[in-house]
Amino acid sequence: MEEGTIIPFPESVRTRPAMYLGGRDGRALARIVAGVTRLLAVDGSTLVRITIGAGNKVMIVANKVLLTSGLFEVPQNFTLSLSALPYVCSNLTICSAKEHLAFADGVAVKPADDAATADVMRISFVPDTAVFGNSELHYGKLLENVFELCLHHPQLGVLVRDDRDKYHQQNYLHCPRGIVHLAEEQAAETVGGTYPIAVMEDCIDGVTYKIAATWSHSWNPQPHIACFENERAADAACEMITTTLAGMGDVLRAYIKSFPDKNSRFAARKLRNGLILVAASYGVPDGEWEEKVQLAHNKRVRNFVKVKFLGHVLDNPDFLKFILHRFDTTNPGAIMY
Predict the structure, then answer these.
(1) Which residues pair with 159 in a beta bridge?
(2) In what helix (H) or strand (E) does residue 287 lie, and over which residues does it extend?
(3) 150 near 174, Cβ under 8 Å?
(4) For residue 229, which phi and psi values (nearest 5 degrees)?
(5) Could you report the per-residue pLDDT of 288-300, keeping only the tens digit for each?
């Protein structure tokens, strides 16, 4: 193949699968399964069962029928779309009470036995060895991806079961409190007990923001960071986290400055000490949106956090005392309250 050759669809999917799937290994397979599960969750499913069998055969059963019309058209991004499956998997079937589809060479056909009995959606497939070789689906990565999915779909419960000969394990994932679940989990695991959690969420100009943060009474200079962009894990050093921390710092710093006898510069350097977790998620309707207005977005995030965090601490004065009880800025180490 000559350099610079443009490979037409669908040959491009099989020739360069890593471009669409992020790899050709077990982790890429896990992302595919999680991607299909996400489509089911978005469509309203509340219970999904994922079973991994011999030969990496995957069976996904959901309690709500996914409307399949248009799902097999060429999308902008194959990574989390059913559209990629017919070209990287074999024996793909999608069965429900409404329809029964099988795929051959990427083309959907209705087999003779097109009757289905239960009003559920059942999707099954086997990864094509010509694409993935002998890679085994990575169970741990699948759990990680599905857990992130559950954080953003609190109504969703997912049972993941591995029936491969040398594994035989299963896990049930459900996060009814959304990303607050992360804060509660982190607070419970931190030495010293359960700690207060600040939750900030809103929808502004079509962009959804959800942020949870929690502190402990001990010094903790490096908090655990979890950031998500459009429900997918993002870099912990992204602008969303930077501006979130800055917004909370603005509120705490302003409070310290309200005491004229205190040295606010001392407090400003250590306001985030004790912060054990920040979980932040935002969703934008347009994939181009972030790139177009990133600077405006950063400012909006900071202002959003300032308003919401200020409201939280005003409504919960004990929360503010908990955060700042270590600080007497005129006498480091003493207690402010």
Answers:
(1) 49, 172
(2) none
(3) yes
(4) -115, 120
(5) 555 555 556 677 7
| Spacing of C-alpha 257 from chain mean position | 37
**3-state SS, residue 128:** coil
Exposure string for 161-195, b = 16+ CB within 10 A, e = fewer: bbebeeeeeeeebbbebbbbbbbbbbbeebeeeeb
Which of 189, 146, 184, 190 is closest to 52 using CA atoms? 146
Torsion, Cα of 286, 77, 157, 100 (10° steps): 120
Domains and CATH numbers, the chain: 11-174 (3.30.565.10), 180-324 (3.30.230.10)
Alpha carbon distances (Å) from 69 to 66, 83, 99, 274, 330 = 9, 11, 11, 50, 67
147-194 confidence digits (pLDDT tens): 988 988 889 999 999 999 888 899 999 998 888 888 888 777 766 666
Buried b (16+ CB within 10 A) or exposed e, 112-149: eeeebeeebbbbbbbbbeebbeebbbbbebbbebbbbb
Match 């309707």 to its residue by tokens: 285
* CA dist 264 → 142, 220, 256, 268 (Å): 46, 20, 6, 6
What one-character DSSP code corresponds to residue 82? Answer: G
Of the listed ranges 128-137, 139-148, 207-216, 219-228, the least confidently predicted one is 219-228
**Which amino acid, residue 125?**
F
Tokens 């799937």 correspond to: 21
pTM for this model (two decimals) = 0.78
C-alpha to C-alpha distance for 325 and 69, rounded to whole angstroms: 58
Helix or strand or coil: residue 94?
strand
Q: How many alpha carbons lie under 13 Å from residue 200 in its C-beta half-sphere?
A: 29
Tokens encoding 327? 């600080």
